[in-house]
């Protein structure tokens, strides 16, 4: 944590209110985000208990699994979820514009420009917390290998038709969320934590209620007290006033409210099955419906506060002006979204359980590049972020105190003006270190050419001055200009091309061979999934 | 863990020269005549890794096998080129370099048989072509090289090997498993446990897929003195021990000027006599650039020069003066190095190397002065506990190592017991940083001198 | 002493407790793993750790019941000795009891299972109900299981040391978890040498627990029945450094956090916060130093804080100015978005 952030946190402790950690919004926010607030069953992997989902803050769709261990009820839940999520995604997938992309021509091996479809926008998914992102990943993993009756008529428990497809999309969103700076799938706690520093630790910031309490406490109340209440206050029944944002539930809720309600539901179901005539069945069905309604009410009571909190968080974030580069990063998300759409359209199989060596290496390279890009762009977009880089000696801002024209040696001398900058920052400048400034949004490079006195540096500008003997107007800083140079590059170079997976070298296990061509099997199912 | 560690053979029964020669012969045999596609060589600090690489390169070239050499940094590549040219000035060597400004050491321009180019095609047909892994990753060939040598393979990432492995048929992988591991700037947990985890070291992936490859170890450190090899071997190489090439008494450090009784002088005498010295400052939590500790480091260096140090070793029976060039200061962080440089400049010392562990990897000095990574820290992070960092700092010296540290590191370690997460299926890397730190600290405690300016 | 009831008595009840769903699921899973005389468990031990041995078709499952922990520990030692002296057979010890010497007094431990191999070596088995999904599991949970198993390994080694010849206690334990989304058991060998070494060193240093106790005032006693202020005083006398990580590990953490916040300790915001603050440990001291009201400017921590405070103030002022400008010039804002970014980013 940089000292600047530390100071902001301590300032938050002192004032009882969160302090800005950013002055612009560094993530794209969709006009119509799909908010998803899931709950899961303790002790079971991937057994959802319920969720609120939708794009209308006043009318979320409530989905509930009254008995989470019943496979059919779970499938019904997933099927309903698919009915909400997939149409939303598909609406974005269908609206395209034409874009240019550089591809390698398979015949000539040359890089050529081709025209392709790019989705005009992409669907954005927001969950309350980081654990929610993990749960999206888990749901995706649990669904994408399921077989529908159409795919496999012999499957013992076929999945509803659209469930595997939803699994593939959620897997894609979960995977994309690992790319630094991406905004397809965001956790509200991460979003708020990026933009505000609270008077508690980042660990405690994972509690959405407490985090919001620091950022936006009720009139007249301190953030610290409100946060403490959000974390710990319980009603007379021992239930938390601010339920955890999930997907895990509070054990007290499980034990005191949920377990008895599920038990009543189970009993009602058994009774219904044992009904001997229509009249009895009607009565018992009514009892079952009532028991189910009770569980639905319980699930809604634990998800609705979180749902409202997520929308409140969105309101707060929308008050910040968008960072200049956030849109450019969103365009990369759109490419990612379009790419996945195309893979599904072309009939590719679901994402494998494990990446192959080449895919893993490519993903790591992409993420490292995106991390560097994000770090640079956030600093360029936000003086508060740049302040942190300046403190770390990775950038410096100051006033131009002198400009001397100079030229490169050689047959055709080019301008290499020497610019003297006075700064109070302490950049880690060494012999011929390169520095960059943003000139009309493009990076201009200079070389460190010497230090005159403490805080007075001479830089040699080396590019972006045009082709002529004289630099183009405005391309060289003038005396009195305020400038900001960074020691980090503003744009990222592409990495080396890795071999195709079919060409995996011997050091990494060799080509995948026949085994890779076989589609992945569905997961084993156990009898205990069903009651 | 030490209970299980293999103990080195008893003194006397060990002929370092013969052991090292036997190991080298076996490595060269497997490399030139073995049936396997790869050979892996573990080389502890100062065991003659570069000598081995140069020798293997020359023998492969002599056998008429086109060779590519992959190193990790430009400085490493240039160093190998210079060494090759020194051993065989006639050998046609290619230095493949990037298209950045100043892509290689200017000293290469004086070597008539070294051709330099940013394009691999310009270097076709030369006996040996050397470059960094990053540059090789952009090279495309129709016909792979018959042989490759991958240097510092434990510092190379698996994904980096993936990018270049298609360029060669067989390879010799050489490196020091005890030094700093490669790292990724983003999380890579999702691939942990996979044999080809892209963030793992190249050797880990290589051996996971080719467990039958011959693995060798250079058994003798020619750099570390007899006073240091057992500690470094036990603390950092518990399952692959090595020995010092020299015996107690083979090396001596003496001073023309007697001690003035101050802490720095007493720690110098302790280090001269025993090979180790711990200059301990009173316990206190400090920022990284602890002014007192920084000044203590600088004073030790100043006294080292002022007292007319002289080193006697197997290299020179006559005492060689301990000059600034033979001394280095090691720190964990760049700002600490900068603060020490400034403090040294205040004392009129400008030509002593001061650098971080990362940059001191692979270098050698007569005496090192180390600012302990945990000195004065209120907390112990994974970075500061990383085994490789301490190993690098404690294994750069031929004669003596002086550690400057605040008291209280033992208690700090106790407050931060190792509670690392465990990824299923990954090989456990030994030793544990927490454990190694304790081991080194316990040893240094026997050579403690309290700070009294 | 029960830390949860102590916390409640201190007025900071913890959010701990276990959901009965998780509890039931965990029990059902362990029962399933151990069903049929531990057939599945032994199959996994054979497959993951000892493929060279005879498959475990018939295994001994000795009765370990006895009175009291000492009795059960003695019964376990006896069963281990007998099993070790019966070469060629597999033996499963279900919930054995082990005694570990901690700072001079015995601590009793109950591993899920210990398996004696046909070659006489011993393996610790840990059964957990978190899933292994596609071969990997939550690293924090696996790490905790490994540390737990390492303690059992140390305790078993104390038992083994009393036998002649001493049997080998294996340093790779077997972790058994549900596979993927099912409740079918799957296993993974976990190398616990590191955890064993660390725990061993900690136990050796824990001889000082006596020293900690000696340092406590006479009559310190943690009974939840005491009045809250006496309790607080008693707990305060034990040196414990609160950090946010404690919240997920200790029932008393909320109490410690309240005290830590009250004292204005910067570590209540996380341990890394302290890294650059040197000797400054309280919120007020740090802020006063940053404002220039206190602290020695020659102290690098103080100097860095002042620079940080100045840079932060400058950046916030710049942002505020930009916001005002853009509010008055919204019409041109979009047109100058790119050039604006440099100004915003720098000044």
Shape of chain A: globular
Strand order of the largest sheet of chain A: 12-13-14-11-10-15
Largest sheet of chain B: 8 strands, parallel
Q: Determine the structural class of chain A based on helices, strands and strand pairing.
A: alpha+beta
Low-pLDDT parts of chain A are none
Any descriptors?
heterotrimer, B: 453 residues, alpha/beta, eight-stranded parallel β-sheet, six-stranded parallel β-sheet, 15 helices, 19 strands, 33% helix, C: 347 residues, two-stranded antiparallel ribbon, 8 strands, 48% helix, 12% strand
Describe, in plain words, how this protein is organized in 3D.
The complex is a heterotrimer of chains A (531), B (453) and C (347). By secondary structure, chain A is an alpha+beta fold. Helices cover 40% and strands 17% of the residues of chain A. Chain A contains 12 helices and 15 strands. In chain A, strands 12-13-14-11-10-15 form a 6-stranded antiparallel sheet. In chain A, strands 4-3-2-7-8 form a 5-stranded mixed sheet, sandwiched between helices. Chain A has a two-stranded antiparallel sheet with strand order 1-9. In chain A, a hairpin with a 2-residue loop joins strand 12 and strand 13. In chain A, helix 3 crosses helix 4 and helix 5 runs parallel beside helix 9. The longest helix of chain A is centred in the middle third of the chain and has 41 residues. Chain A is globular. Chain B contains 15 helices and 19 strands. Chain B has an 8-stranded parallel sheet with strand order 4-3-5-2-6-7-1-8. Chain B has a 6-stranded parallel sheet with strand order 16-15-17-18-12-19. In chain B, strands 11-13-14 form a 3-stranded antiparallel sheet. Chain C has 347 residues and is of the alpha/beta class. Chain C contains 12 helices and 8 strands. Classes of the chains: A alpha+beta (531), B alpha/beta (453), C alpha/beta (347). At the A-C interface, helix 1, helix 3, helix 7, helix 8 and helix 11 of A face helix 2, helix 9, helix 10 and helix 12 of C. Chain B: Pfam families: AAA_12, AAA_30. Chain B: This is ATP-binding protein. Chain B: GO terms for molecular function: 5'-3' DNA helicase activity; ATP binding; hydrolase activity.
């Amino acid at each position: 944590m940089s000292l600047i952030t530390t100071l902001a946190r301590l300032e938050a402790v002192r004032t009882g209110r969160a302090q800005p950690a950013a002055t612009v919004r560094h993530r794209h926010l969709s006009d119509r985000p799909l908010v998803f607030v899931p709950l899961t069953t303790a002790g079971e992997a991937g057994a959802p208990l319920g969720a609120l989902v939708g794009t209308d803050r006043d009318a979320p769709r409530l989905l509930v699994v009254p008995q989470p261990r019943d496979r059919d009820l779970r499938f019904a839940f997933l099927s309903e979820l698919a009915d909400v999520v997939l149409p939303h995604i598909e609406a974005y997938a269908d609206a395209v514009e034409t874009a240019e992309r550089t591809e390698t021509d398979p015949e000539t091996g040359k890089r050529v420009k081709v025209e392709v479809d790019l989705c005009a926008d992409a669907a954005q998914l927001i969950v309350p917390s980081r654990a929610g992102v993990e749960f999206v990943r888990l749901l995706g993993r649990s669904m994408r290998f399921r077989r529908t009756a159409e795919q496999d008529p012999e499957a013992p428990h076929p999945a509803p038709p659209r469930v595997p497809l939803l699994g593939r999309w959620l897997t894609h969103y979960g995977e994309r969320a690992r790319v630094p700076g991406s905004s397809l799938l965001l956790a509200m706690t991460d979003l708020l934590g990026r933009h505000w520093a609270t008077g508690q630790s980042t660990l405690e910031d994972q509690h959405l209620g407490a985090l919001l309490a620091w950022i936006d406490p009720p009139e007249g109340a301190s953030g610290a007290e409100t946060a403490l209440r959000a974390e710990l206050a319980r009603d007379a029944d021992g239930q938390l006033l601010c339920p955890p944002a999930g997907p895990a539930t509070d054990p007290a809720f499980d034990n005191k409210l949920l377990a008895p309600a599920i038990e009543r539901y189970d009993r009602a179901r058994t009774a219904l099955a044992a009904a001997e005539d229509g009249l009895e069945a009607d009565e018992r069905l009514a009892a079952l419906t009532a028991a189910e309604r009770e569980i639905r009410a319980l699930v809604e009571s634990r998800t609705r506060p979180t749902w409202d909190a997520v929308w409140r968080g969105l309101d707060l974030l929308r008050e910040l002006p968008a960072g200049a580069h956030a849109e450019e990063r969103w365009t990369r998300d759109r490419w990612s979204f379009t790419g996945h759409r195309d893979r599904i359209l072309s009939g590719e199989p679901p994402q494998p359980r494990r990446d192959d060596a080449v895919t893993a290496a490519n993903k790591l390279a992409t993420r490292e590049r995106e991390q560097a890009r994000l770090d640079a762009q956030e600093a360029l977009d936000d003086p508060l972020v740049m302040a942190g880089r300046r403190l770390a000696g990775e950038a410096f801002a100051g006033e131009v105190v002198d400009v001397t024209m100079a030229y490169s040696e050689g047959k055709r001398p080019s301008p290499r003006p020497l610019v003297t900058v006075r700064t109070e920052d302490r950049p880690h400048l060494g012999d011929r270190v390169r520095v960059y400034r943003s000139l009309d949004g493009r990076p201009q490079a200079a070389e460190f050419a010497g230090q005159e006195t403490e805080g007075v540096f001479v830089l040699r500008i080396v590019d972006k001055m045009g082709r002529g003997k004289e630099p183009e107007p405005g391309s060289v800083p003038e005396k009195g200009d305020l400038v900001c140079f960074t020691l980090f590059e503003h744009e990222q170079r592409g990495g080396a091309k890795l071999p195709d997976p079919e060409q995996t070298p011997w050091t990494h296990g060799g080509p995948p061979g026949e085994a890779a061509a076989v589609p992945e099997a569905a997961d084993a199912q156990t009898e205990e999934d069903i009651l | 863990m030490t209970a299980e560690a293999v103990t080195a053979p008893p003194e006397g029964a060990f002929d370092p020269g013969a052991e090292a020669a036997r190991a080298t012969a076996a490595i060269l045999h497997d490399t030139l005549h073995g049936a396997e596609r790869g050979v892996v060589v573990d080389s502890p600090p100062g065991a003659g890794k570069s000598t081995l690489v140069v020798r293997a390169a020359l023998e492969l070239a002599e056998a008429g096998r086109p060779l590519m050499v992959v190193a990790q940094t430009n400085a490493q590549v240039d160093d190998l080129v210079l060494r090759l040219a020194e051993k065989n000035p006639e050998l046609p060597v290619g230095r493949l370099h990037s298209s950045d400004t100043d892509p290689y050491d200017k000293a290469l321009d004086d070597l008539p048989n070294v051709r330099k180019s940013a394009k691999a095609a310009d270097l076709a047909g030369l006996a040996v072509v050397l470059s960094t892994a990053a540059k090789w990753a952009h090279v495309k060939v129709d016909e792979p090289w018959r042989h490759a040598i991958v240097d510092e393979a434990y510092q190379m990432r698996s994904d980096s090997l993936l990018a270049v492995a298609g360029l060669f048929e067989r390879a010799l992988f050489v490196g020091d498993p005890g030094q700093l591991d490669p790292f990724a700037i983003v999380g890579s947990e999702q691939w942990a446990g996979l044999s080809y985890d892209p963030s793992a070291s190249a050797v880990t992936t290589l051996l996971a897929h080719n467990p039958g490859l011959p693995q060798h170890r250079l058994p003798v450190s020619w750099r570390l003195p007899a006073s240091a090899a057992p500690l470094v071997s036990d603390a950092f190489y518990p399952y692959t021990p090595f020995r010092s090439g020299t015996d107690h008494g083979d090396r001596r450090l003496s001073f023309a000027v007697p001690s003035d009784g101050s802490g720095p002088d007493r720690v110098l005498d302790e280090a001269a006599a025993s090979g180790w010295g711990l200059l301990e400052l009173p316990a206190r939590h400090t920022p990284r650039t602890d002014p007192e500790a920084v000044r203590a480091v600088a004073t030790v260096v100043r006294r080292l020069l002022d007292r007319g140090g002289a080193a006697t070793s197997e290299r020179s029976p006559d005492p060689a003066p301990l000059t600034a060039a033979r001394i280095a200061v090691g720190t964990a962080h760049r700002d600490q190095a900068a603060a020490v440089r400034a403090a040294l400049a205040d004392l009129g010392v400008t030509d002593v190397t001061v650098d971080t562990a990362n940059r001191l990897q692979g270098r050698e000095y007569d005496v090192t002065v180390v600012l302990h990574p945990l000195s004065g820290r209120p907390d112990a992070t994974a970075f500061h506990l990383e085994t490789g960092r301490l190993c690098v700092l404690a294994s750069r010296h031929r004669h003596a190592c002086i550690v400057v540290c605040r008291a209280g590191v033992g208690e700090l370690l106790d407050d931060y017991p190792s509670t690392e997460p465990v990824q299923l299926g990954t090989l456990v890397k030994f030793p544990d940083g927490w454990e190694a730190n304790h081991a080194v600290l316990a040893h240094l405690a026997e050579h403690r001198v309290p700070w009294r300016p | 002493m029960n830390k949860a009831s102590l916390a409640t008595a201190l007025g900071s009840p913890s959010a701990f407790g276990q959901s009965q769903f998780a509890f039931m699921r965990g029990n059902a899973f362990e029962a399933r793993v151990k069903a049929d005389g531990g057939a599945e468990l032994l199959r996994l031990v054979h497959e993951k750790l000892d493929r060279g041995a005879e498959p475990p078709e018939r295994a001994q499952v000795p009765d370990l019941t006895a009175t009291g922990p000492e009795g059960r520990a003695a019964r376990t030692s006896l069963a281990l000795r007998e099993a070790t002296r019966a070469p060629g057979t597999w033996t499963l010890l279900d919930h054995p009891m082990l005694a570990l010497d901690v700072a001079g007094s015995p601590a009793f431990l109950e591993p899920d299972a210990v398996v004696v191999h046909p070659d006489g070596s011993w393996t610790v088995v840990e059964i957990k109900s978190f899933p292994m999904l596609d071969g990997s599991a939550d690293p924090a949970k696996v790490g905790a299981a490994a540390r737990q198993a390492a303690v059992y390994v140390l305790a078993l080694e104390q038992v083994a040391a009393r036998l002649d010849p001493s049997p080998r206690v294996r340093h790779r334990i077997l972790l058994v978890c549900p596979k993927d989304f099912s409740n079918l058991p799957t296993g993974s060998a976990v190398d616990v040498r590191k955890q064993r070494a660390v725990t061993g060193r900690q136990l050796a240093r824990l001889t000082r627990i006596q020293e900690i106790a000696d340092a406590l005032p006479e009559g310190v006693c943690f009974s939840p029945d005491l009045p809250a202020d006496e309790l607080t005083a008693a707990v305060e006398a034990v040196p414990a450094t609160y950090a946010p990580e404690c919240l997920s590990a200790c029932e008393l953490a909320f109490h410690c956090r309240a005290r830590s916040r009250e004292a204005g300790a910067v570590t209540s915001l996380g341990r890394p916060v302290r890294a650059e603050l040197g000797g400054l440990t309280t919120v007020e001291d740090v802020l006063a130093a940053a404002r220039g009201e206190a602290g020695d400017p020659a102290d690098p921590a103080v100097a860095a804080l002042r620079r940080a405070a100045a840079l932060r103030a400058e950046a916030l002022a710049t942002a505020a100015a930009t916001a005002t400008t853009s509010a008055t010039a919204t019409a041109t804002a979009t047109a100058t978005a790119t050039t604006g970014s440099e100004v915003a980013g720098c000044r």
